[in-house]
Amino acid sequence: MERFRSVGLGSVLLVYLMSGASALLHPSSPKSVCKSCDPQPANCKSNQCIVNCDVSKVCPNPDDVCAAVWWRENGLVTVRTNCHNPTQPLNGVRMDDYNSSDCVLEVRNVNNPNVRQCTCTGHECNERMLVNKPDDNSELVIMPVSEGGFRLRQLCRFCDIESTDCNATGVCKSPCNLTSICEKPSEVCVSVWRRNKVSATIETVCHDPAFPFRGQYLTDYNNTVCQMKRLKGMEDDFYICSCNQEECNDQLYFTNVSAPSCPGCIGKTFPPVLLVSVVPLLIAAVLLLSTFYCYHLFRQQNLKASRTKGIDIETCAIIMSDDDRSDSSSANANSLNHNTELLPIQLDVIVGKGRFAEVHRAKLKQGATDESFQMVAVKMFPYEEYASWKTEWEIFSDAELRHENVLQFLTAEDRKAERRYWLITAYHERGNLQEFLTQHVIGWDELCQLGASLARGVAHLHSDRTTCGRPKVPIVHRDIKSANVLVKSDLSCCLCDFGLSLRLDNSMSPEELANSGQVGTARYMAPEVLESRMDLENIESFKQADVYSMSLVLWEITSRCSANGDVREYEPPFGKLKDHLCVESMKDDVIRDRLRPEIAASWANHVGIQLLSSTIEECWDHDPEARLTAQCVVERFGEISNAVILSIISDTKSTQDSGNDEK
Ligand code: ADE
To answer: How close is the Cα of 427 to the center of ligand 1, in Å?
Structure first.
């Protein structure tokens, strides 16, 4: 079944189409010259960005214009420049500004305000871009950071102290009407609610979490929402939260349940000056402190013991000692919502069931009324599945994992009362890719959108750099299948279910790797995984096994594309869905008979599908080393769509020519 082998055929056709065909079609029209660089930090000042891109390209197609795509992710700004065919969508958006001589970066998709893009006509007109101010009129100020990127300063509510009638239950809106750009890029948004005998107030500020705030270190500053945590031991009733999204300190999430006492916090939050100035209380304070000290020692011992057992005992809401901070890896940067501070979530229907957990659609309430809510997904694990929850939570907690093609994580919760652990994520109403393909036939554009975005998600997971160039720990998924891919509203994919994933940091010993075992779903397992013959000392082999599974998903997507004129009913790779395929029967098919899903003859009817078939075959090669990388598949998608565009132009031209000849 190894059909259309060789990169040769694809590349030759591609080169022919890109150079020969277009030159023949447009012998004299001048081609644009555009800046053409992979994603890189842009030099942005005020409302102008300049790319330091030293690659100028003569565009392959005479109709091409120049384009730039600007995005910000975790506060970093990146720009990609290239040629663009204006008859095609750019990132799924049809551009209407290509006649402009300036490239004016604007948000083109309201659902994605962090992406701006522009097209323009003129020699290297995408070298300098104008940035329209965001709709909220906030000033766009971009600061350089160490790796040459630009971190946007956060926008936060910033009113210092104002009185409030919020009574620390449910969700409160801050009384502050001022949004400020924080002074430093490292600052996050913070809110403090406090009540003394006279009044209640809310304080809204920007603050750098590297420094204590009111004597405390903030540990929840990676959160996207401001989840209020109660501090005991203050003279006033005192709640605090921090978060790292624009104006996230405006909506404050409280709970009705009062927090347990947290003696570990008390000593650190008492201003020492009180101890000396209130002389009559001194003796009582000494007694109290010694009691606290004993308790603290006891607690530290418990903490150490439970950590060595691999269990995190509940730590003080937002206070950590310096020691705790220094040994918390980035994987633990995201805080857990403890039982006392649960998000106001109303569960709805079940939308998925997995090996260890079930997923519910749910409403995250946004305001005092029931009408205002955000749809989220809640993955619920029974207490017995603590290890799966913890693995997935740790994978998600790495801030560098964030990517548009990876399911967006919101927070994790320990729902003690129900004896369940939760992971709260974005909700995607189109459901998983398998359901989607069962119900929909797709066209060529959708095939590219689904397939390329899947490859981008896997490439990001495997990469040791973020899109912005920051270092990141490569991750392998180990259970890639169409049921573990969600379809977003723009028909791009995002990967989900990281319960079997592994972080490939250098700290993993060969023994740990060896013990990681044969995991995944038999139907999608690479031959070397089925045989338990992976080269466990080489982290690349885990990625190669993921690429094999991804190729089967790409095949599933392609099998539902009508562009070649022939679509069959959805079937998963290797036969009917209801058939339970065990490892042994898969070994017979995949290893002994070297069987792969069928590539129908009709797939050769369409240039793009034909080229994609060759790519898929290179990804399911029996030899793991011979497989393409996920990043290479991303690039192939770019080349294949160009080839398709050129073949359409070429077909149109020959139809016109034959029409002229007949006249
Ligand atoms: N099924 C599993 N996870 C889901 C999610 N986040 N959104 C929609 N359906 C899902």
So the answer is: 6
Q: Which of 479, 497, 546, 621 is catalytic?
A: 479
How many angstroms is it from 541 CA to the middle of ligand 1? 29
Of the candidates 460, 212, 253, the one whose C-alpha atom is nearest the C-alpha of residue 343 is 253
- Contact predicate 193/201, CB 8 Å: yes
pLDDT of residue 450: 97
* 623 in catalytic set: no
Higher per-residue confidence, 136 vs 594: 594
d(CA 315, CA 396): 20
Ligand 1 atom 8: residue of nearest CA: 428
CATH architecture of residue range(s) 1-25+334-429: 2-Layer Sandwich (3.30)
What pLDDT, in 10s, does the model give residues 56-108? 889 988 999 999 988 776 555 678 899 999 988 888 788 999 999 999 888 88
Domain with CATH 2.10.60.10 in the chain: 33-150, 154-266
HSE value, Cβ hemisphere, 13 Å, CA-based, for 628: 23
pLDDT in tens, 297-354: 444 444 333 333 322 222 222 222 223 333 333 333 345 665 456 889 999 999 998 8
Q: Is the CB of 351 under 6 A from ligand 1?
A: yes
Count of Cβ atoms closer than 10 Å to residue 273 Cβ: 8
Ligand 1 contacts CB of residue 406 (under 6 A): no
Nearest to 556 by CA among 434, 452, 638: 434
Contact in structure between 107 and 27 (CB atoms under 8 Å)? no
Residues 6+ apart with CB under 8 A from 619: 547, 548, 550, 551, 554, 627, 628, 633
Check whether domain 33-150 has CATH 3.90.226.10, yes or no? no
Ligand 1 and 360: CB distance under 6 A? no
| Spatial contact of 89 and 446, defined as CB atoms under 8 Å apart | no
Q: Which atom of ligand 1 is nearest to the CA of 426?
A: 6
pLDDT confidence of residue 338 = 55
Residue 486 above 90 pLDDT? Answer: yes
Residue nearest to atom 10 of ligand 1 (CA): 431
Query: Which segment, 257-266, 347-356, 511-520, 652-661, is predicted with the most confidence on average?
Result: 347-356
Q: How far is ligand 1, taken at its centre, from the CA of residue 193, in Å?
A: 34
Among the listed residues 493, 495, 452, 448, the one whose alpha carbon sits nearest the alpha carbon of residue 475: 495
Tally of CA atoms within 13 A in the half-sphere of 198 that contains its CB: 2
Residue extent(s) of CATH 3.30.200.20 domains in the chain? 1-25+334-429
- Cα 285 to its chain centre, rounded Å, is 49
d(CA 633, CA 332): 32
Residue type, 536: L
Query: Once rounded to an integer, what is the mean pLDDT over residues 204-224?
Result: 83
Contact 425 CB / ligand 1 (< 6 Å)? yes
What CATH code would you report for 154-266? 2.10.60.10
Evaluate if pTM is beyond 0.70.
no
Burial degree of 47 (CB within 10 A; 0-12, 13-18, 19+): middle
> How far, in Å, is the centroid of ligand 1 from the Cα of 347?
13
State in Å, rounded, how far the first CA of the chain is from the last one.
Answer: 46
> pLDDT-based confidence at 283, cuts 50/70/90?
low
CATH class for domain 431-652?
A: mainly alpha
- Kind and range of the H or E element at 451? helix 444-462
Please give the share of the chain, as a percent, with pLDDT higher than 70. 74
How far, rounded to the nearest angstrom, does the alpha carbon of residue 624 sit from its chain's CA centroid?
27
Cβ of 359 closer than 6 Å to ligand 1, yes or no, is yes
